[in-house]
Structures are given as structure tokens and as C-alpha cells.
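REQUEST FORM: STRUCTURE PREDICTION
Request ID: SP-0412
Submitted by: Lab K.M.
Chain count: 1
Length (residues): 59
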Amino acid sequence: MSDQWWFCLKHMAVEPEQGCPNKDRMGPYETRQAAADALRTAADRNERWKDEDEAWEKD
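STATUS: Completed
RESULT:
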């Protein structure tokens, strides 16, 4: 079994390597917990990017 995990956007659940098609999921992640936190991680990264991007404020 692979040591990689994905977060399925269709089922809103963590999946092992053998799961839904990659077009429906985020990953891979090294741990099951990292995959479970995928949406929070993406939101945090988007917020940091927005805060750091001066052009965002100009729009």
C-alpha cells in the first residue's frame, strides 16, 4: 500500500491511492491527517497569498 493520501472533493473524504479519479481530489499528501486538512490548508494558503499580493487590493 502507498504512503500517500488524497482528499476526495466528490465525497468530502480522505482516500488512499486507490480511490476516485484525480480530477475529483486533492493530493497526494504524506499522511492521512494532512489529507483531512486539505481544504483548511488550501484556504490558509489562499488567504496568505491574498494578503501578500498588493495587486489584490487594487482590484
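NOTES: The mean pLDDT is 91.
Reviewed by: T.R.
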